[in-house]
Specification:
This protein is of the alpha+beta class. The protein is built from eight helices and eight strands, in the order H-H-E-E-H-E-E-H-H-E-H-H-E-E-H-E. The longest helix has about 35 residues. The radius of gyration is 33 Å and the shape is elongated.
Length: about 230
Amino acid sequence: MDAADELARALAARELDVTELVRRAEAGAYADAEDTLRRLLAADLLQRAAARYADRRVIGLVGVTEGVRPIVRELDESALHDERRLEHEVRTHNDLLLDAMTDGSVIPFRFGTAFPDEAALHGWLGDHRDALALELERLRGKAEWAIDVVGPAATAEPEHYLAERLATATRPDVRERLAALAEESKGDAYLIAESKRPELDALVGCLESEGYELRISGPWPPYSFARLP
């Protein structure tokens, strides 16, 4: 007696409906096969998508400078998902803008502004050339400064520190005095003309002499103030 006969006898002895049992077994087998196939197809699609985008390169628009000339950098999209490479790309983006500032006006673009190819980039520049030229003129000779009031300067008498900190923290005129010197202001960011740099230095010195501790960085490309098309 072979295995098939033995199975048939066992099923008959238990008075089971073989047809129904086979139907259920087939349904389960189909479900298992479908689930396995679904996983295989999903894995294949992910592999093909990764292969497609792993080496995909786009044209990153860093900024626009004199003559409506673009500052560009070729980007590998996979770098946008790698923390170490992403940090390097962001630093390079900012360094290119700082270099451009030494030669004239610059409109900074946010990191990640990208076009699929040079044709698309130049087409966009052509469509917005007039607006970009006006914005370059508006920003000429100006830079962004970040000036944050940290608190009062340290005192030799710790028992008076809290009172001094509360006194300076409640004075409302620091941002107003800085904003009066700036072309524009947003929070702790100020767009300041290079011609007013001596006035800025004098005001900072005055604020510090009044007991304010300031955190200052700049000059930066005018990220907060560029009006992009």
